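Working notes for the structural subgroup meeting. M.R. asked for a predicted model of this chain before we commit to crystallization trials. I am recording the input and output together here so anyone reviewing the notebook later can reproduce the run.

Input as submitted:
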Amino acid sequence: MPFLEGLGHSVMAIDLPGRNGKGRPGWRLTLQDYIDDLSGTVDREQGKVILVGHSLGGMSISGVAEKLPHKVARLVYVTAWVPMDGKNLVQLGRENEASGLHRGTGSSLLRGVITAHMTAFREVCSANIGSERN
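Returned structure, recorded in token form:
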């Protein structure tokens, strides 16, 4: 944020529902909850905005751009999930087994969390650096 502000940009970091005590627990939230919450913030801004999404935030900013195309100037994905029509995050993860990322992460639907197993995650990332991209 300080870097972008230093370049003269107005920057806002938004906590999505379930983060830092905002809203209900994460395991009861849906992607639509994230999209609706973020859309409310975007809609209150003057003019068009640039949305930056990291991780699951990629799915969220894409949904906002579909919902409010007149308010979104650009989308930026930073190591983020990029949605494909008709596919959810679980489907995308299963289809991306060749990357090996599934070995470095785990999930608990009951707790509503996704965890990174750092040793395995580092190994997968190191193996994928410079590999062919689809």
